[in-house]
Specification:
Structural class: mainly beta
Largest sheet: 24 strands, antiparallel, barrel
Helix content: under 10%
Radius of gyration: 25 Å
Number of helices: 3
């Protein structure tokens, strides 16, 4: 702890010397530690780990005084949890920053997270569950020279585990809010925001065979239109040719189009989105793997399911190319009607479909052509789902869900140990019930069933959860792979967990038999190996 405070203080001295007193500032922080104790389990393919115990932990401290702030984060992977990149192994202080925020200018030195537009050409972020942290270590300046006009510039290198990438990043983003910039439009009901970005990375060409560009630039333009309950977002991105390992060193330029429109009024919400991605994977180094050193964020436009069985087949964005469409409608059947009941009933319908590009190579290996609409017959993923959410009494609510998934396992899981089984066609039914016993005690239950003839076959699941507010939570569930094509692998995956929470602190203990699969957040995934054992999680904020 003393080392952390000392590092934070020393890093802040250039700013604090401008008449600030650290003793009158405010220090806040957060702590998290996840620990696994594992057993081998040959039936589910869980191998023994040499250490028996694995852990990921961090402590972050932030100092704030007036317009100045500074922070530092200590991280320890001893050794990394299953499924995390082993290059995280070790401990250190990979994140520290100092910042000044004035009326018109904001300056940050050190590590920072940020993004331009929707993130198609630049997004630096952290996702603890996936082991992703691609923060930029360098300088960021934000400047607002006039009302409604915002400029942002960055210069630095990306974090690469406990080191930095070889590539040097240079980028700028400009945003113009016409309603703020033009006095006559301030009260106008129609609002328009325009945005433009450029991102460039430099990496020396040391390839002895190929002639590789050392400076690779990407550009994007974005517009947002808002009027009443209507909202339209559109963005186009372009990247010059960027041959590197993960796109098989093709010399095509890259492009991305993303359009999202939604409309809402009382009792009704409609959303439609479309996306086309072609060779838009953008990294700060050429020889990388998995999610390492990613500059572009290309989220999936399919629904993110949170129930257990649908997460067997989550969609991961195909960065080298895809075409997708999603549409959803949420309608609230009014209260005190025959269909709506006393409290009203919410019905949500969602559809998404993602297909591959129709690519034809015009030069062996190095260049190709692709039609704008892609190859609609080359299905990557399709999801049709309907959810009915109804409150029956003051204390009882049910949620009934039907999901039909088509999942191209060979494409989505290419390069993983699970690929090679074609397209999986599944039908999933889920019933969730929530009942409030008293003001502090509630129970929740789930029954889930997945039917499929492909891959691992059919599954069934039951869950029960008891919460005693504000401190205790207890959960037990069982996933049963009763339809596995190999009878000796028709096994139960048990999970028992309890958690105790007080103020801003939480301690959780879990025993689980974890199936192998993909863990995805927002279309970004990592492969999680099978495991059997205990896990302890501690989170705290102060």
């Amino acid at each position: 702890m003393k080392m952390l405070v000392f590092s934070l203080t020393i890093f802040s001295l250039p700013f604090l010397s401008l008449g600030q007193n650290i003793e009158t500032g405010n220090i806040s922080g957060s702590f998290q530690s996840d620990v696994q104790y594992l057993f081998p389990d040959s039936i589910i393919g869980a191998n023994a780990v040499d250490e028996n115990v694995l852990s990921n932990s961090f402590l972050q401290l932030t100092y704030q005084k007036g317009q100045f702030s500074a922070g530092v984060r200590y991280e320890a992977y001893l050794n990394p949890l299953l499924g995390f990149d082993q290059r995280y192994k070790g401990q250190g202080l990979p994140y520290r920053y100092a910042s000044y925020q004035g009326d018109k200018i904001d300056i940050t030195v050190g590590n920072f997270y940020d993004q331009f537009g929707t993130g198609m050409i630049f997004r630096a972020y952290q996702e603890w569950a996936l082991g992703i942290d691609n923060s930029v270590d360098g300088i960021r300046v934000k400047f607002s020279p006039a009302p409604g006009f915002y400029i942002k510039g960055i210069l630095g290198k990306q974090r690469k585990f406990f080191a930095l990438s070889e590539g040097i990043l240079r980028g700028a983003n400009a945003e113009l809010n016409l309603n703020e910039a033009i006095p006559a439009l301030k009260e106008n009901k129609t609002r328009l925001i325009l945005e433009g970005s450029v991102m460039s990375k430099f990496q020396k060409d040391d390839d002895v065979v190929l002639d590789l560009p050392e400076n690779v630039s990407a550009f994007s333009g974005r517009a947002r239109l808002i009027r009443g309950g209507f909202n339209l977002d559109a963005e186009y991105a372009y990247k010059i040719n960027d041959p590197f390992q993960l796109n098989d060193y093709v010399y095509n330029s890259g492009s991305g189009v993303y359009v999202n429109a939604n409309y809402s009024q009382k009792g009704l919400g409609i959303n439609v989105s479309a996306k086309r991605i072609d060779n838009m994977d953008f990294r700060s180094e050429r020889t990388v793997s998995l999610q390492e050193l990613s500059l572009s964020f290309l989220p999936a436009i399919s629904r993110l399911h949170t129930y257990r069985l649908p997460t067997l087949y989550p969609y991961a964005t195909q960065l080298n190319g895809e075409v997708g469409l999603q549409a959803s409608i949420i309608y609230m059947i009014p209260r005190n009607t025959k269909l709506g009941g006393k409290y009203g009933t919410q019905v949500a319908v969602n559809y998404s479909r993602i297909s591959g590009l129709d690519t034809v190579f015009v030069e062996p290996k190095f260049r190709y052509q692709s039609s704008f609409l892609g190859d609609l017959s080359n299905l990557y993923f399709e999801d049709i789902n309907v959810e009915i959410n109804r409150r029956w009494t003051k204390n009882l609510r049910t949620i009934l869900t039907y999901i039909h998934l088509k999942y191209n396992k060979d494409i989505i899981e290419l390069g993983t140990s699970s690929a090679g089984k074609g397209t999986v066609d599944t039908h999933i039914g889920i019933l969730e019930a929530q009942y409030k016993i008293s003001r502090k005690v509630a129970i929740r239950g789930e029954l889930q069933h997945m039917y499929t003839k492909q891959d691992l076959g059919s599954w069934a699941m039951a869950l029960a959860e008891l919460s005693i507010s504000p401190h205790w939570y207890f959960t037990v569930f069982d996933e049963y792979n009763y339809g596995h094509p190999e009878p000796d692998k028709r096994v139960h995956y048990y999970n028992l967990s309890t958690a105790y929470a007080f103020k801003a602190h939480r301690i959780g203990l879990t025993y689980s038999r974890q199936r192998r699969g993909l863990l995805c957040v927002g279309g970004i995934c990592r492969e999680v190996p099978a495991s059997n054992g205990f896990s302890l999680s501690i989170t705290s904020s102060f």
